[in-house]
Amino acid sequence: MRVRLLPAVLLLPLAASVPVILPAAPAMAVEEDCGAVQVKEAGEARSAATRESAPLEQLRIADAHAYLAARGRQPGAGVTVAVLDSGVTASGGLRVSEHVSVTGRQGELDDWHGTAVAGLIAGTPRADDAGGLVGIAPYAEILDVRVFDSGDAGSTEGKPVSADGLVEGLGVVLAHPEVDIVNVSLFVDQPDPRIEKLLTRLHRRGVVVVAAAGNRPTEDDQPLYDDFGTPEAGQDAALRVFPAGYPSVVAVSATVDGLGDREDAAAYVLPNSRTDVAAPVVGGVTVGVDGGTCTVDDVVTSWAAAEVSGVLALMRTADPDATGDQLVARLLSTADGRTDVRSPMTGAGVVQPLDALRRPVTPAEDGTLDTTAERSDRRAVAPEPEVDTMAATRRDAVWWGVLGGGVLLLALVLRPLLARRGPRSP
């Protein structure tokens, strides 16, 4: 079974692969791409992103936080998100409840991808002069489930991405009943009945599983490249990207917002009829493996899935009693597209976190919405008058009354005249 890690399809430039070695503090930290960050020795300056997170500004996450704060709630509080990935750093301010590895290796990380994903979900705001938000749900707890060490299927160091690793990781999640959301920013290119069975069990428990919908492959990604190497009309990766291809999973794609008006998303992400929603990713700020902050500028559905997991954590904070299906229905129905006519690139549209929190949408427990119900923002109009079955009778009575009164009045006026013209006595 061929397996690939999503970010591997967009390789970093060679120049970005060489980390900047910094002198010990108090030297200034340098902003770096997350792929170039390495674990720092004690006393070395950590990476530090100096710009605002463009995707969080586009999604109005600060406004979503303010909405929750006005209701006395902290973004992500009381929510646990399991991150099935390459492991999460123990530094950097992330609220990691537990580190679990199914790769047979513990300790130092071999891959930065899992830390970047966790940071997009729950990175704490920067306290330095730059300030700014990092994660969407900074008060959420992360259950770190390390399911691979290297994204290269041919790697001899550590455990690569595999269906077996994903099965073991989902089994860990099932053993943790506190988990609300599962983020899977990786894929295998064939369905696996073991994975589907575990996902069904999680869905029945009310856990929402979010997965990346797939990136455009490179020549290194055989045999997927043979079918999807270049954009062509009619392409559909729904049956080649799992677990995003399973109906119980929220499949997330990425937009090219921030790359330029002429950029085509199809050059970066796969058209997928199972896509549920999309999110912007270019210019994101997250956590590096050195515990600092770093940036991600590539169009990768891994980052989009992490952002949607963060939005769902905000929604869970706002409505702790909602079922998983209700959360998903609200997420989709408040996106900026259409749930009945979905796009293979963006599904029901780009997520709208603030609308997902405050719009008066009330799905049933199974997530279904009554599409015949009137919109809550419809303008008020006067009610239609009820049919009056006695109107004609009352109208006739009025006219007869008017006519009778007129005759009586005429008789009273003429009576004196008629009395004076009567016959004289002999």
From TrEMBL:
Keywords: Hydrolase, Membrane, Protease, Serine protease, Signal, Transmembrane, Transmembrane helix. GO terms for molecular function: serine-type endopeptidase activity. GO terms for biological process: proteolysis. Residues 1-29 form the signal peptide. InterPro entries: Peptidase_S8/S53_dom, Peptidase_S8/S53_dom_sf, Peptidase_S8_His-AS, Peptidase_S8_subtilisin-like, Peptidase_S8_subtilisin-rel. Residues 372-381 have a biased composition (Basic and acidic residues). Residues 359-388 are annotated as: Disordered. It comes from the Bacteria. Residues 76-339 form the Peptidase S8/S53 domain. The lineage of its organism: Bacteria, Bacillati, Actinomycetota, Actinomycetes, Propionibacteriales. It comes from Nocardioides lianchengensis. The active site is at D85 (charge relay system), H113 (charge relay system), S302 (charge relay system). This is Membrane-anchored mycosin MYCP. Belongs to the peptidase S8 family. The chain crosses the membrane at residues 397-418.
